[in-house]
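Exercise 7. Predict the structure of Transcriptional regulator MntR from Brevundimonas staleyi.
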Amino acid sequence: MVQVPGAARRAAAFRRMRDARSSEVAEDYVEMVGDLIAETGSARLTDLADCLGVAPATAAKALQRLQRDGLVETKPYRSITLTEAGETMAAASRERHRIVHEFLIALGVSGETAEADAEGIEHHVSPETLTLFEAMTKRLNKGG
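Solution. The predicted structure, encoded as tokens:
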């Protein structure tokens, strides 16, 4: 077997990225369900699909997985609701997004680009990096 320098470290990083990708869809969905409920009082399948830019059938399939995972509750002809676990996931996702967005803005990234970039980075950033982003943002905003 060929030994590649740093293979174990790289394998761990790839595993972390795969894990982040698998939770990315769930985080986006629960965050959007929460946002819809906050903005309109309810979250319906068609509204969710429209907001996420997917077909209703795609959203329905994702919601089945989220329900199986205990993150949402769905009932025929009723609004989608978040479970306590779903609320927790949505809040954590929103907070990561806020921290990354503010960091990018503090670096001088335009608002539109910061918003788009934060949407991707928030799902892949480690807790260590996120903590440093927040600390650096505070320093940058204080001017030193």
